[in-house]
Amino acid sequence: MSFRREAHVARGGPDGGDGGRGGDVVLVCDASLRDLRALRRRSQYRAGAGVPGRGAQRHGANGEQLLLAVPPGTEVTATAGEIEGRSWDLVLDGQRAVVARGGAGGRGNKRFTTPKRQAPQFAEQGLAGEEGELELALKLLADVGLVGLPNAGKSSLLARLTRATPKVAAYPFTTLEPNLGVLEGEDGQIVLADIPGLIEGASDGAGLGDEFLAHIERTSLLVHVIDLAPELAGDRPSGAADGPIESMAANYGLIERELALHDRRLAELPRVIALSKADLVDDVTARAALAAFAARIGPDIPVLLTSSATGAGLPALATELLARVRSAAGKGAGRPDSPSGSVGDGAQGDPRDGSQEALLPEHMVFRPGLQAGYEVTRLDAGAFAVTGPAVARLVERFDLENPEALAYIEARMRRLGVLGSLQAKGFSPGDEVRVGDAALALFASRPR
Ligand SMILES: Nc1nc2c(ncn2[C@@H]2O[C@H](COP(=O)(O)OP(=O)(O)OP(=O)(O)O)[C@@H](O)[C@H]2O)c(=O)[nH]1
Ligand SMILES: [Mg+2]
Predict the structure, then answer these.
(1) Could you tell me the residue range of the domain that residue 398 belongs to?
(2) What whole-number distance in Å separates Cα of residue 203 and Cα of residue 130?
(3) Which string of DSSP letters, residue by residue, matches 301-360?
(4) Which of 31, 177, 265, 350 is most buried, taking the most CB atoms under 10 A from its CB?
(5) CATH code for position 408
(6) Which residue has a Cα nearest atom 24 of ligand 1?
(7) Which one of 138, 159, 175 terminates a domain?
């Protein structure tokens, strides 16, 4: 609130400028980051405050927004505060999410000048910005997930198909953390993820549990790796009742059940089956097993024989994966940000693909609408409560000790119809009206 004061100007009039709005807290997806470590150092982040307005109609500057960089694949959920329940998914470089908006600035007293109120002795207060708690989870972004029992040969496949160097050893649970590798194709790359082996009950936490399944939730294709050798390399005659094919089918069913129990989406992903370690059995046996197993599984799922020792079947597997990921991306079923797609050069605002354009801005833009609704409740004789966002904001915005500001609130409430509703419930001038934490004696001076 300010009035013009100058030596030779009498009654200079109100000249209070508006306050600036508070800065937003914004998460920005940054493809150069790989983890969330940078955010561990602090637990609270706050954007800059708006600068108050000043005399001579000088408006305050807006608060500086706070930009926090997160790696692609960050899922954000607001778990507390007024932002609770909102969520964002940051996958593309440069993508932004405004997770908490700064509060609006208040208007200076100059704005409240009317022919009748030429010297307003009050100004609006700024509103508080949004506050809350966020949970950030990083999920790997891979096109293809390698799944299977422990020791099936998943990491060996990743090592042969890509330049990744995961640990490989002849015992179960060699892999304790997911590994990523890039498979180079002729016209693009795809990312493969090797996760720890799964066992029965993994979806309930058995073995290393389902913790790592989250990392393959966003793949567009799974490679289910089944060890061909333990059944066929032994001296069990193939084709015997309850023989190797039944046993492989049982292992297959077991893993598929765990995937489905973890998340239906995983069950619905297309898959390729790799019968691994084919070098450990003779060619004829391996081919017979392939034919029998493929017949069991049905025509919809390709089954391939592979050997990470000799490299047999690996070019065919690579071709299959590259083709299927590309066709999934073409259908829009895959991740829109697949490195094999047209993004990845970091070009922003390139209008070549509408669907990607649509993903580039914030995933979710939350704009509180103008909610004018309110509710009047009679608490007891002489006391009422009014609830509703518009009324709450009105009261929050002004100094309630200031009689002029109070008169302004009364006038606004009358226009909103609040006075009428109060009167319908037995309100008489001067009764207590509670709005949020405030208790006001309204309409005491000028009942109508
Ligand atoms: N002969 C032969 N051995 C293989 C082949 N693939 C994997 N192995 C062996 O099988 C064992 C397990 O291989 P890994 O690649 O570590 O298996 P994994 O599925 O990643 O196992 P976990 O990480 O424990 O789930 C290792 O001793 C590998 O050397 C193959 O094609 N031929
Ligand atoms: Mg492994």
Answers:
(1) 375-441
(2) 37
(3) S-EEE--TTT-TTHHHHHHHHHHHHHHHHHTT-S-TT-TTSS--S---S-TT-HHHHHHS
(4) 31
(5) 3.30.300.350
(6) 173
(7) 138
236/385 same-domain check: no
Computed on alpha carbons and rounded to an integer, the radius of gyration of the chain in Å comes to 33
| Residue showing tokens 């108050």 | 52
Cα 149 to averaged position of ligand 1 atoms, centre (Å)? 11
- 230 within ligand 1 shell (Cβ under 6 A): no
Ligand 1: which atom is nearest the Cα of residue 306? 31
77 and 37 share a domain? yes
Q: Is the CB of 152 under 6 A from ligand 1?
A: yes
- Cα–Cα distance for residue pair 312/275, rounded to 1 Å: 11
| Range 1-22 burial, b when 16+ CB lie within 10 A, else e | bbbeeeeeeeeeebbbbbbbbb
Atom nearest to 310 CA in ligand 1: 31
Statement to judge: residues 151 and 294 lie in one domain: yes
Say if ligand 1 is within 6 A of residue 150 CB: yes
- How many domains, the chain? 3
Please check whether residues 298 and 207 belong to one and the same domain.
yes
The CATH number of residue 134's host domain is 2.70.210.12
C-alpha span between 229 and 181 (Å, rounded): 25
Query: For ligand 1, what atom is nearest to the CA of residue 173?
Result: 24
One digit per residue, the tens of pLDDT, for the chain of length 448 reads 888 887 776 677 888 888 889 999 999 998 777 778 788 788 899 999 988 888 888 898 899 999 999 988 888 988 888 888 888 888 888 889 999 999 998 888 888 888 888 888 888 888 889 999 998 887 767 889 999 999 999 999 999 998 888 889 888 888 888 888 888 888 777 889 898 888 888 888 777 777 788 778 878 899 999 998 776 655 555 444 567 888 899 999 999 999 999 888 888 899 999 999 999 999 999 999 999 999 999 899 999 999 999 999 999 999 999 998 877 766 544 444 433 333 333 333 333 333 333 333 233 333 333 445 788 899 888 899 998 888 888 888 888 888 888 888 888 888 888 888 888 888 888 888 999 888 888 887 654 4
Q: Residue 348, exposed/middle/buried by CB under 10 A (0-12, 13-18, 19+)?
A: exposed
Stated pTM of the model: 0.56
Q: At residue 10, what is the residue type?
A: A
Regarding whether 172 and 79 lie in a shared domain, the answer is no
**CA dist 184 → 163, 259, 314, 318 (Å):** 10, 27, 13, 9
Cα–Cα distance for residue pair 133/258, rounded to 1 Å: 32
**One domain for residues 105 and 162:** no
